[in-house]
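Journal club prep, notes for RB
We'll compare a predicted complex against what the paper describes. Inputs for the zinc ion case:
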Amino acid sequence: MQKKSVVNEAEQIQLAMQMIELGARLQLLESQTTLSRERLIKLYKEMKGVSPPKGMLPFSTDWFLTWQPNIHSSIFYNIYRFMVEYAGVDGIQAIIKAYTLYMQQVQNPDPAQQDEPVLSLTRAWTLVRFIESKMLTTKVCHCCGGQYIVNSYDLNQNYVCNLCHVPSRAGKTKKAKELSYKLVSMTA
Ligand SMILES: [Zn+2]
């Protein structure tokens, strides 16, 4: 049991605020800070002006394997792994840092043109947990050399990624090509 001190509490509030700023759900805040649910709800309301959304966290691995989410998840995870290996951070701090960089990579720099990011912070955290529990893993694409999120239970021999093998409904958009370039330059 961690000793309760004013400094520790201030750090916990700081961490919670950082996560709320990045769009964290209540369950994520509860699992990564020592603050009570009541305090977290109060903090959330104070910052966002509304109550935190209710409902369960996404718990299926399927989402991470669908076309567009897979590309975004792969970009995030490549940054996260780099953070853990070379920047000396881990746990939620590595997730927060990697997520901030992911947002910089995929979001329009013009605030007026920014939409909700494809991958939310809560999903990014869930992804790391799925990989740690070996439900998901990464695989190198034979075609472009990028590292992508795949299902651990699939064979994935001669794996070809979602950008090199685009389903016809998705189309090879300019945006997809840009993302592909970013991902390959990150992992090469
Ligand atoms: Zn590829």
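Talking point for the session: The radius of gyration is 18 Å.
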